[in-house]
Design brief:
Elements lengths: L1 H8 L3 E2 L2 E2 L2 E2 L3 E2 L10 H10 L9 E5 L2 E5 L5 H22 L10 E2 L12 E3 L2 E3 L1 E2 L1 E4 L2 E4 L5 H12 L2
Parallel strand pairs: 7-10
Antiparallel strand pairs: 1-4, 2-3, 5-6, 8-9, 11-12
Length: 160
Amino acid sequence: MRRFIQSFLSRRSFQVRVGSSFSGVKVSANGTPRGSILSPILFSIMINDISHHVFSHSDLYADDFCFWESGGDIKLLEELCQDSLSKVATWCINSGFRFSPSKSAAVLFTTKRKPPSVQLALTTVPIPLKRNTSIWELLFKVTDCTQRTYSTLWTNATSD
């Protein structure tokens, strides 16, 4: 089985077609082949332990990973989230994964009118601070910020 999986993931190449034109053949450096029934299973096995490497609350659904902190001290929350981002970066190095900072977002949900600025980075690349984000098809907006609203949404999103 080990040799089969190793062969399945090794020495893969691809070519892009646009209309009747083809690109040159390129070697795939990482990832699993798209369209294979085995790919999602192997991906899930590989990423399944990421939540064990951060101290923050976290959740994983397919290839969407999310972690969060809550409390009243925004600067402390920023430090805790940055610590988790650093742990995610280390996990990526050790496991061969790459996260895209451009596809990542930080959202500060607060009732404060003028919250302090929050700066987070994945390795050295800043994570953009946004006013809303989608997690598993749910849209969270800063303007709708009440503890009751998010507690209800999060309970509904995470219940079995």
